[in-house]
# Entry
Amino acid sequence: MVNLKINNIPVTVPEGTTILEAARQAHIEIPTLCYLKDVSCVGSCRMCLVEATGARGLVAACVYPVAEGMEVQTNTEKCRKSRQMTLELMLSKHKKECLACERAGNCELQRLSVEYGCDPNYFAGEPLNHEIDYSAPYVVRDRDKCINCNRCVAACQKQAVGAIGPIGRGYAVHIGSAFEMSLMESVCVGCGQCIVACPVGALKERTTVDEVWAAIHDPEKKVVFFTAPSVRATLGEAFENPVGTNVEGKMVAAIRRLGDVEVFNMDVTADLTIMEEATELVNRIQTGGTLPMFTSCCPGWVKFVEQKYPEFIPNLSTCKSPQEMFGGLLKTYYCEKNGIDPKNLYVVSVIPCTAKKYECHRPEMKGEVDAAITTRELARMIKRAGIQFNNLPEEEFDDPFATCSGGGTIFGATGGVMEAALRVAATLLDGKFEVVDFPEVRGATPIKEATYKVAGVTVRVAVASGLGNAKTILEGIKSGERKYDFVEIMACPGGCVNGGGQPTLPDSIRNSLELKELRAGALYASDKQNKVRRSSDSPVMEVIYKEYFGAPNSHKAHEVLHTTYKADPRI
Amino acid sequence: MEHCEAKCGTAEQEKALEAVIEASRSTPGCLMHILQEAQGIYGYLPMPVQKKIAEGLGISLSEVYGVVTFYAQFSLKPKGKNRISVCLGTACYVKGSDKILEEVEKELGIKCGECTEDGLFSIDSCRCVGACGLAPVMMVGDEVYGKLTPDKVKGILDGYKEASK
# Structure
């Protein structure tokens, strides 16, 4: 242990701790911009400069390790002046559209500029007028708001995607794709981890909120919403609820008050995905099909395979994602049952994800989902509609897609799809199998492995979240080091609860909380309370298969609920 | 990830590039060296070459491109058979090397950073070649020309034009 003083407060911390981490113990906040826990730590933005004995000049607290007897001062005039000038230099080339910027009020640059009393026009930079990159249906990039903190680059590299990086040198340096390619031409998979890493408004989702409002106000259209499992665990954050609050009931009530709409539960098609996927897995095991089978519910992961590892396409389950299964189900079964012309049904999915915005544009999905909006966009719609979210009553989803199993709910966290699939696959192999808890595959550990034996069949499974970890799994399978039968991958670290469409929290919160665990906790608590844990026991599944599909993996199920993939090699 | 489809120059050039990548790929921090060698082979670093390097090292194209655009020594545009480099370092500059550059541009009808249509010359500027005693200095290929005056430029360039005939 190392003893030091920060602003004269004695602190004892383990060796190797940085000044930034040690300061938190003394309840002292040191401002940061380029630092982001678990993502980026390079000491380049110079916001966290402090004075420390034994150091020459000011040092970057986020990377500078503590030493025995060290005395740190974080709040001297020298530190404050330095930070103020750093901020004013950033502001000199920042597009100051702060009045209507999406990040206004939750922009880290704005907060610090206010705290440090900055003059935004103290330095006059060259005028900015770069084109905004609207090429992709999921992410919009505005270079003129970027402060070159590189958090997006670190997030993208951690994802083993590397679609963006710093280009050029000196004043001309900017973040972009190689050869100034647009995002759509680049290797970007649309996961949106860059958006939730961005401290300012340089990266945001491509919003489709106006189209959704237009559909709601169109008397010809019947509008239905469905919400992904993880949205209930995060939407509350946009209304100042603590991280990890499950706001399912208020979320349903809020959407219902946006207009004459129905609100369905996407956990239902998570159950449906499991019915199809578990059956496909058991078939592959019993008939010698391609193994390991990979989950296919995450469109960022699917795009990653198509672009970087097309040789693994046969390993992907042919199941559509729950979003697209819902689109298919609504435009066929639901329309037929209720005598609705599919052209007049406007389907809105609310998702924690930006890649799902891209997914609904894939030609093989036939536009079955009309608009996919992120948790953030839903929050903005609720605010614009003047709905006092926290005062809403708790309401329930609309039938016939209201009731789900606990397995459907945990889809939103890493390991959840695996556990839900195991619950069903185990009973397919052994009708008397009782266990529904598979704790080995839970938690935010980047890679989890387990082996299960059911009815004489050994199933080796792996769960990875974050595409960097997915790459480790794929390379391990290629080299023969790793051997599995079933692998769950979610593109975002921690799964959908930490998706690129989730509320953007400032670094001051992200650096001090276990975000992924807290959000996932809300879903596992809901699973535990659910009387129905296994997707195959859900009464809604019984009805859907009886009335429409017959059985999992039937011909009709293949037509509506399964899909194909296409190699699209990119470097 | 074995799918670099774009052609990387001639078969010999491609083979030479592959050999360079193979020889250095396991050395940490080898990217700079490979880029320098690749530029030696191709004269510049077009996209297919950078893709091949990214693929060979298992890193992203944006990382390679970031390094290429950081260092002034790397070029994204083809260079002429005779690469002219006019020194604009302090010593040369105070001795009037900006006038030399102007004269070269005028004589060849292209701007600094460009290449003549016939591919014979390209012009770049550099910062100090370590021959300040000879200021102002310009290099053509590996040849250094010192104590220049604008009126000497035409004669030097004519010599190269003559040699290429």
Observations:
- The mean pLDDT of chain A is 96.
- Chain A is about 35% helix and 15% strand.
- The interface with chain B takes residues 157, 161-169, 176-179, 186-187, 308-310, 569, 571 of chain A (CB under 8 Å).
